[in-house]
Amino acid sequence: MPSIEALSPIFGADAYRDRICTHAGGERNLAQLGARLAGTPDLVGLYATEDAEPGYQPDPAQAGRVVALARLLPMPPGRAMRDYPSGRMGASGRDHWPFGWPAETVFAARPGGGPVLRDAVELVLGLFDFADFTASLRQGPVDLRLMPALRNRLIREIEQEIARDPASRLLPF
Q: Taking the CB of residue 42, how many other CB atoms lie within 10 A of it?
């Protein structure tokens, strides 16, 4: 069974179409993640942040939840992370998340569904200062290899959600 190897912040329902994107400060983390996971069965959890700016979270019920799982695909020959921007333009006319990695979404939670990350972190890691945990997400995707209890908790909750709503599983994993 594949595992959730990383978490990546997202800011809206359209953020997990066919790529995982990050800002310039997260480029290195995403490149390392892509080099390690692309073409493997392992997954990246897509976390809809609790504190998205107005307009970036079209479904407030998804805020704070792991709303999707994606599998990273191999980077096509001749392509680079800069070829996969988010398409989310800021007031300055620049893309907020100009670096991306091709991916396929294998699970998408129903509206208001998906594990609440804060609850999972408090339960399995015993961390009650969620801000300390999520601070690392400001640097792009976060590697979960050293947090097996959190990975296991999230995948169990997602399996339970799929049992309730089989249509949330988009592809086998």
A: 18
